[in-house]
Amino acid sequence: MELIELQPTMKGLKGMIEIPGDKSISHRSVMFGSIAQGVTRVTNFLPGDDCLSTISCFRKLGVVIEENDNELIIYGNGFDGLKEPDEILDVGNSGTTIRLLLGILAGRPFFSSIIGDHSIGKRPMTRVTEPLRSMGAQIDGRNNGEFTPLSIRGGHLNPIHYNMPVASAQVKSALILAGLQAEGETIIIEKAESRDHTERMIRKFGGQVHKNDREITIKGGQRLIASDILVPGDISSAAFFLVAAAIVPNSEIVLKNVGLNPTRTGIIEIMNKMGANLEISQNEADSFEPAGDITIKTSSLRGTVVEGDVIPRLIDEIPIIALLATQAEGTTIIKDASELKVKETNRIDTVVQELTKLGASIEATDDGMIIHGGTTLTGGKVSSHGDHRIGMMLAIASLLSKDIVELENPDAISVSYPNFFNHLNSLKN
Ligand code: SPQ
Question: Between helices 197-204 and 23-35, what is the axis angle to 10°?
Answer without folding.
Answer: 40
